[in-house]
Amino acid sequence: MQVVTIIILLFFSQAADLRKTRNGNSRKKANNRKASGLGKASSTVKRFTPNPPCDIYTSLFEKYLDCQERKLTFVLPEWPEDLKHMLLAQNSIRKLKNNMFSKFQKLKSLDLQQNEISKIEDQAFWGLNKLTTLLLQHNKLKVLSEEVFIYMPFLTYLRLYDNPWQCNCQMESLITMLQLPRNRNLANYAKCVYPAELKGQKLKLIQVEQICGEKVGPQPVPKPEITRPEFDSSLCHMYVFPVQTLDCRRKDLKKVPSNIPPDTVKLDLSNNKITLLRPKEFEEIDDLKVLNLSSNGIIHIDPAAFVGLINLEELDLSNNSLQNVEYGVLEHLYFLKILRLRENPWSCDYNIHYLFYWLKHHYNVHYNGLECRKPEEYKGWLVRKYVRSYFEECPKDKLPIYPDKFDDNETEEPTPKHSVIVTVID
Ligand SMILES: *[C@@H]1O[C@H](CO)[C@@H](O)[C@H](O)[C@H]1NC(C)=O
Ligand SMILES: *[C@@H]1O[C@H](CO)[C@@H](O)[C@H](O)[C@H]1NC(C)=O
Ligand SMILES: *[C@@H]1O[C@H](CO)[C@@H](O)[C@H](O)[C@H]1NC(C)=O
């Protein structure tokens, strides 16, 4: 009886606490879900119970529990058993106890990132035999054995990075498991933090002899540590469904935040105050598909700014202060499909040619908004028309043949990208 009372009290105090911080927040969240398309698909969006205030909703016929940022320390027994997705990011869970999730045998994904988990008991995931996605990044795990994963035969997506991994012999079974060819998508970014000589090495690449071999000779002198500062997760909102999204809109950011989690798929930096894009701003975010930089006042993009964004499909540069795009800027974007360029003061002089020719040669990239604003004589012209007139004024140069419908929507057969070298015409 006493225990029950204590638990009830705990909920009340938690809920009270949360209401203070969350009142402004939950609306934003709801909006965000709408923005991401989930809201539309939801058939029910309702408050679960007043205490604790978790959201339960159905999207595409699957039931979600969104209990992120609730200061939770454990899983509540009254949550419905037919949940498919459990979002518990940014709570205060410290330990995953045996059978903690055994009630939720339908779960497909479990998001436990950004908690304080330092211990996972061997049977913590018992019963989760449908689970495919498990997010444990950004916790306090030091060692873990393969055993905890044996209850999840269909696990295909596991994140373990940003944990202080102690690469010693206790990790042997986990490291061996991660290195099996069929597990090539599990825990790709997790790195050792200790011992010093293995710091920064990926678990995937550690050789078992390195951690279980006998130490001979003097210990190497530890090098001064260069710690990778962690992403400040209070800065932006992070969403996991439907894709890993970092929402940093309207945060008065003057530069691109550092250490963006490498598995971010959508990054929204719109409506900030980023005026320059420096080299390699996005280098480690290999998974990024959508990057929104609109409404920032960007004046200049370094040619190496987009290095590493090989999977980027959509780039929104609209409503900035760009007059042209320097040679090289777009060369890293092998899989770009959509480029938004509206509302920039594009200046129709020789410097705009690179952008124009890049788009011409990558004609499966859809773009919009490439219109001259300067100089006065070309104001309002499509850049295409300006470039054409440029050649008409130089009759010695052969006028290139442009497809008539070289426009916002290109639908010609795709050719391998980067197969054509951009011709710089003088
Ligand atoms: C980028 O952000 C702006 C403003 O927040 C929004 O209107 C636009 O649709 C976004 N672009 C993409 C590609 O999501
Ligand atoms: C364009 O960006 C400015 C700030 O640079 C902002 O005040 C304005 O609302 C934006 N316009 C649109 C249409 O988003
Ligand atoms: C461009 O494509 C969109 C959607 O694919 C379509 O709605 C629009 O009519 C197209 N515009 C032109 C000019 O073809």
TrEMBL record:
InterPro entries for the chain: Cys-rich_flank_reg_C, Leu-rich_rpt, Leu-rich_rpt_typical-subtyp, LRR_dom_sf, LRR_TM_domain-containing
Keywords, sorted A to Z: Leucine-rich repeat, Osteogenesis, Repeat, Secreted, Signal
Pfam families: LRR_1 (PF00560), LRR_8 (PF13855)
Chain residue ranges for the region called Disordered: 22-44
Signal peptide: 1-15
Domain LRRCT: 163-213, 344-395
GO biological process: ossification
Annotated compartments: Secreted, Extracellular space
Bias kind Basic residues: ranges: 22-32
A GO-annotated cellular component: extracellular region
Protein purpose: Involved in bone homeostasis. Acts as a negative regulator of RANKL-induced osteoclast precursor differentiation from bone marrow precursors.
Descriptive protein name: Leucine-rich repeat-containing protein 17
Organism this protein belongs to: Python bivittatus
